[in-house]
Every structure is written in C-alpha cells, then in structure tokens.
Design goal:
The structure holds 2 protein chains of 2 kinds.
Chain A (H helix, E strand, L loop, with lengths): L1 H16 L1 E12 L2 E12 L3 E6 L5 H8 L7 E6 L2 E2 L5 H8 L2 E4 L11 H12 L4 H14 L15 H13 L5 E5 L7 H18 L2 E5 L3 H7 L2 E6 L4 E6 L1 H7 L3 H7 L9
Chain B lengths: L1 E7 L5 E9 L5 H13 L5 E11 L1 H12 L6 E4 L3 H7 L4 H4 L12 H35 L6 H11 L4 H25 L5 H40 L2 H7 L4 H37 L5 H11 L2 H27 L5 H32 L3
Parallel strand pairs in B: 2-3, 3-4
Antiparallel strand pairs in B: 1-2
Helix pairs in contact in B: 5-10, 6-10, 7-8, 7-10, 8-10, 8-11, 8-12, 8-13, 10-12, 12-13
The chains are: A alpha/beta, B alpha/beta.
Chain lengths: 268, 370
C-alpha cells in the first residue's frame, strides 16, 4: 500500500515537473497599446493555473496571445514545446486542436441548440457513432448542470447558463489544456462551487491542465494550484505561486490588497 | 489502442473485457461491437471488466454509461475500473441519461401552423400601426421642439445615407441611362426616331426610374444598416437601457434616421436623375446625336410637373426606407442570427412597400391626369 502511495506521489511530482505552457519574454497588448512587458511564467502539466489581476490588467489580452488569437508584440509562447508565435497556419491549427477555450460570454453559436453546440467539435474531429456523440455531448452538459436544456437555443438561456454551456463545449473533446476566461462570473455560488469541484476532478483524474483567467477569489483558493497576479501599473507579474501562501505571507501591499479584498493602497 | 474481448461463463454471465486507451480516437470501432455484444444476451447478467483499461477520458466514460443505460432484463455492472476513472463515471446517472430530458419540439399540425402564421401577420400589422403612430408623434414633437433633436446624430447619419451613397447611386444611374438609351435607340433608329430616346430617358428617369432605383438602393444599403445597427443595440440591451433611462427609443433612434433620410433621399434622387440623363446623352453620341441636341429635346419633352411627380415620391420613399429599417431593428429578438434576420426583413419589406407605393402613385397620377 505504502509503495503504491509513494509511486502515486512520485507520479504526481513527475507530472507537475512537466511544463506544458512556457511564456518567455512576452510583451502583451495591441499595436496601439503595450499592456504587459517582459512576462515570463510556466504552467505545469495537470495543474490548475490562474491568471489574476484587476480589470484592464491584461489578463484576457495575455490569454488571447497564449491561445494564438492575437500574436504578442514580442516574445515566445510554447505549448507542449511548439512555439505558437512563430507557427504557420497549419501548425497553429494543430496546436489549437489540443486545447479547448471557454470565452467570457460563452460564445455559443446562436443558430444551434445547446446539444448541437457541444456536438459540433465531436462531429468534426471524431468518427464516433451519432448516438454516441449525442451521449458524450449530453454528459458534458450534465457536468455543468444543463442536461435538461439540451434542446434550448442559447438566446433562451441566462448569461450564466450560456457560460456553462460554453465550458461544456470547450470540454467536448477532452483536451489536455482548457482555457477558461472568467468562468465563474455570472454564476450563482452553488453552480460556481460545483464548477470548481469539476475542475479539480478533471485535473486530478484526467490530468487536464486548466488555465483560468479570473478575479473570483472564491474559486482561486478552492480550485487553483498556482497563480500569477498581473498589475496594470507595473505592466507585469507582481506575484506568482500558491494563492494561499501569497495571501498569508506576502509583504507587497498590492498583492495583499488583492488577496484580502482591500481597497487599492494609495501611492505615497 | 483499445480492445474488446467477450467471455461467456457456464452460468450464462457474459463478461465484456475492455482494455487499452478508451478515448474519442480509439472508440469508434469498439462502440457498436460492445453495444451489440451486450444486446445479444438481454436476459443474462453482464459484467463490464475494466481491469486492463489504461486510460479513459470523457468518451470512454460515455461508453460505460451507454452500456449501463441500455434497457435489459439481466443485471449489468462495471468491475475493476480504476478509482480515478470510477470517480468520473460516478458523476453520471445512467437512468437519467437513458431519456432525453429536453427533446426537440414536435412539429405542429399544418392547420395550427397556418393559424400561428396568420396570428403572426396580424401581430406584425398591429406592431407596424403602433410604430407609425409613435413615429408620427415623435416627428410632430421634433418639429415643435427642434432643439430636442440630436442634430449631431442626424448629420452623422446624413453622411452615411447621403454622401457615402453617392458613388453607388452614380454608377447605377449612369449605367441605367446607358442601358435605356442602347435598348431604345436601336429599334428607334429603324424609323429615324433616335432623337426621341431623349424624351424617353428624360421622362422615365425623372418620373419613375430615378426615384425608384435610388430608393431600392437605399433600402438595400441604409435600410439594412439601420435594422442591423438598432438590432445590435437591442441584442446588447442598449435599447432597454434607453427605455429605463426614460428616453423613448423611437425619439432617440428613429427620429434622427427619418430626418436624415428625408434630407438626403430627395438630393440623391436629383443626383440620380441627372447622372441617368448624362448616361443616356453619352450613349447617344454613338448614334450621332450631339449632347446639345439631346438636352434640347429633353427640355422640350419634360415639364416641371414630370420632375415634381418623381421628386415628391422621394420624400415618401425616404420615410418608408428609414421607418421600415428602424422598425425591423426594434423588433429584433435575441441572438446574433436575429440581427441578420432583422436586416433581411428590412430590405424585403422595404422593397415590397416601395414598389407597392410606387404603383399607388402611378394610379393616383393617372386619375389626376398628371
């Protein structure tokens, strides 16, 4: 028994040493505006990683660079060893197929039912029998508490429900990395907590790596292994590590203010 | 790779041994085989042995759920599934997943569909009447209180409706004049009556084609733009925000657009009339009719009444185009496709109304001997 336990610990350690995303010297922003300068961090395989920061701090911009929607102003981003910045169109498509993305608004296709939205990636990328695709899609919707709404159109649902369906669609192909942009905003506390539990379970059982952009501290302390905290004025990362340790041990007033939900410290 | 082995025990129990990686790429061939093997012995106890499953993602778990949810007389159980994957499986209740909780709505009988369609048409007519009333009231208010009109918006929309439409109106009108001239000059030449092409182009452009073609172009261009813009505002709850701020959407969004269309459409019609006649004049050069002779013929054939008969229409067309575009925008329901629907409906309704109203004008002019 102890041998098994030791080997499990060793496996976990090995898994966590394995870097799946590496961001190197990235300048994030748009041509007209530099938001973050010289950002460096790594995400390890199987961990739940948070990108935190206040509004306008560059969280979503940085995520757009990592998922290959917009190229960064400078630097390199490696996903499983492949540089997404220099990748050609075909290679970028191959890299993007390895991950799922949930956008802030859910970004569901308005002309399809929820079930059809979740079925779409399965239809395109697998050759499973039709009713098996139906079942997988329904199970994904059940995971986010939407099994009773499979036949609904996105416009018939609340914002929070659309967001949950967006998560289900991102998970359809069981990707090795899931990017979630503000997953818990707009969700009721119970659904947000069950979403956190689902994230932990998928991370632990399937080794799915989560990169979550959020400022929901509830989720941060429950679900996340490691976080980076971005700051608009510093134009970069001002803290990195275990969120509990950052909250309890930091001496930086900006970091403390964020994790303890205090008003922003006044510059003196 | 994934594999399936079937083992039947002497006591009748069937064991399905799944092994390898169970994921979306390995399962397609295995899925139907596993389901058939389970269905072949509906009364026998069934054990799904997962001892040799190396990896199992969401699709793999779905296979277990699928086998567990199939109706059968004999008992079915999953054995030896690794605890990490068992935790994934335990999240689902196969009983619940055996039935579709939200099946697609069944089609209504034809007679009901007809009733709903008729009710929809009646509802649409009522909405249009309400909208006309509201718009007239808002325009009346704007005339009485011109300071309340958002003139900056009016000028911005004037630019979009008028100045930005000049190139397309010029191109279409010029080509229209050319085509009319070519089509009519060839047969008329046989009778030595080419010079009367000028009469034809002058009268048809001023009375009919100038206003109608310009209005159809504007319905496709500006009517659709109004519907899409207001429709997007509706989807983004900007219209709701206006209402809760105590601002009437009709006064705030529709009035500036109707005023801008009323100012710009007649000017575009004038422009179209002129360019259409220029197109005809240029073409008639190739039939040895000099521009001076062409213009002189038009001058003798066309009266001020002919010009006014077309010009008056442009004001009515302007109200129709802007009104229908705004109405369809305000009727937009939720979703991205709704904005596309609104724009389509604005163009279709706009063009139908334009042609109908043009026909009414033709009848009225005939009765009045204009």
């Amino acid at each position: 028994m102890s041998v098994n336990a030791n080997s499990a610990v060793a496996d976990d350690a090995k898994r966590l040493d394995d870097v799946i995303i590496r961001v190197e010297h990235v300048d994030a922003g748009y041509e007209s505006a530099l938001i973050l300068q010289d950002v460096n961090f790594e995400v390890r395989r199987g961990e739940v990683f948070g990108i935190l920061g206040g509004s306008g701090g560059g969280k979503s911009t940085l995520m757009k660079h990592i998922i290959g929607l917009n190229p960064p102003l400078a630097g390199h981003i490696y996903i499983d060893g492949d540089d997404i910045v220099t990748a050609g169109e075909a290679q970028l498509e191959r890299i993007q197929r390895r991950f799922g993305v949930m956008y802030q608004s859910g970004a569901l296709f308005g002309s399809m039912t929820l079930l059809e939205n979740v079925r779409l990636p399965l239809e395109v990328y697998t050759s499973l029998p039709d009713d098996a695709i139906d079942l997988v899609a329904r199970m994904k919707l059940e995971l986010v508490g939407l099994d009773g709404f499979t036949g609904h159109m996105p416009a018939e649902l609340s914002g929070g429900m659309q967001k949950r369906a967006g998560i289900a669609r991102a998970m359809a192909l069981d990707p090795s990395i899931l990017f979630l942009d503000e997953p818990s905003s707009g969700l009721d506390p119970i659904t947000a907590a069950s979403l956190d539990a689902t994230i932990r379970r998928l991370s632990q059982s399937l080794g799915v790596t989560f990169v979550i952009v959020t400022h929901d501290l509830g989720s941060v302390f429950v679900a996340m292994d490691r976080v980076i905290l971005l700051d608009r004025r510093a134009k970069g990362i001002i803290a990195e590590g275990d969120p509990h340790r950052l909250r309890d041990e930091t001496t930086d007033p900006r970091v403390r203010a964020f994790f303890r939900r205090e008003a922003e410290p006044v510059a003196t | 790779m994934a594999a399936l082995a079937i083992n039947d025990a002497p006591d009748g129990r069937r064991t399905l041994r799944l092994s390898g990686r169970l994921d979306a790429t390995t399962l397609p061939e295995l899925w139907d085989a596993a389901r058939r093997a389970a269905a072949a012995v509906p009364a026998a106890p069934l054990v799904i042995d997962a001892a040799n499953v190396e990896y199992c993602d969401g699709a793999g778990v779905a296979l277990f759920v699928d086998l567990l949810r199939q109706p059968r007389e004999g008992k079915v159980e999953v054995a030896n599934l690794a605890p990490t994957y068992a935790a994934l499986l335990n999240q689902f209740d196969p009983e619940v997943l055996a039935h579709d909780l939200d099946p697609a709505a069944k089609r209504r009988p034809a007679i009901e569909e007809l009733g709903f369609a008729a009710y929809g048409v009646w509802g649409d007519i009522r909405t249009q009447l309400e909208f006309i009333g509201e718009t007239v009231a808002a325009l009346g208010y704007a005339i009485r209180h011109p300071r309340t009109v958002r003139w900056r918006d009016v000028f911005r929309i004037c630019e979009q409706v008028g100045a930005d439409a000049l190139p397309i109106v010029a191109l279409i009108s010029f080509l229209l004049g050319m085509i009319l001239a070519f089509q009519s000059a060839v047969p008329m030449k046989r009778f030595g009556a080419e010079i009367f092409v000028a009469d034809l182009i002058g009268l048809s452009m001023l009375r009919e084609l100038g206003p109608l073609m310009t209005a159809i172009l504007l319905a496709g261009r500006s009517g659709a733009a109004f519907a899409a813009e207001i429709g997007t505002m509706r989807v983004n709850q900007e219209v709701d925000a206006l209402t809760t701020m105590g601002l009437s959407p009709v006064r705030f969004l529709v009035t500036p657009r109707i005023i801008a269309a009323l100012l710009m459409t007649p000017l575009l019609v004038l422009f179209s009339d002129l360019i259409g006649m220029v197109g005809g004049a240029v073409t008639m050069q190739s039939f040895s009719i000099p521009i001076v002779a062409f213009l002189k013929e038009i001058d003798s054939a066309v009266t001020l009444t002919d010009f006014l008969a077309g010009f008056v229409k442009s004001f009515v067309f302007a109200v129709l185009i802007a009104g229908v575009g705004c109405l369809r925008g305000l009727q937009t329901r939720a979703g991205a496709s709704a904005v596309g629907d609104a724009a389509t409906r604005a163009v279709v309704t706009g063009i139908i109304l334009l042609v109908v109203v043009d026909g009414l004008f033709a009848v009225a002019y005939y009765m009045l001997d204009i």
